[in-house]
Predict the structure of Adenylate kinase isoenzyme 6 homolog.
Amino acid sequence: MAQRDSDMRKKPNILITGTPGTGKTTTASALAEATQFRHINIGDLVKEKNLHDGWDDQFDCYIINEDLVCDELEDIMEEGGNIVDYHGCDFFPERWFDQVVVLQTDNSVLYDRLSKRGYSETKISNNMECEIFQVLLEEAKESYPEGIVVALRSDSIDDITNNIATLTHWLTTWKTVP
């Protein structure tokens, strides 16, 4: 019987996803610092490596090329020890992740965060609808095994601190099957 990729890795990989403004990058950065794992911000990677198909004027963002992103990450993900941060999750191979974290934020908190970023009303409205209808949680549940998807609140600094403690504990107890 073939081994799963997670059985061969010495360290697990975590995906932190959620609607823009839920604290993905803040959480991933702090978790990477606490655990010495590699933080991979997909948005930054797309810009740095030109892994996109142009610019979307309506949503004021790059149109990522999912195939190029996956090709770029393939070898790195096999090594393990990665915390990937992105607002989507359904295009990543299931085998890459041992834990998928969906950050969720109260709508009034999220609205304020997106407004402070200078998002257009269209972009704010789109992201608010995604959060209200739990689009990213549903996407994660449809894309990954039930046992590895977890939703965490991310309304405050205390929530982020608690999430980092929870995830650090999970990382220290993760073991590969011999």
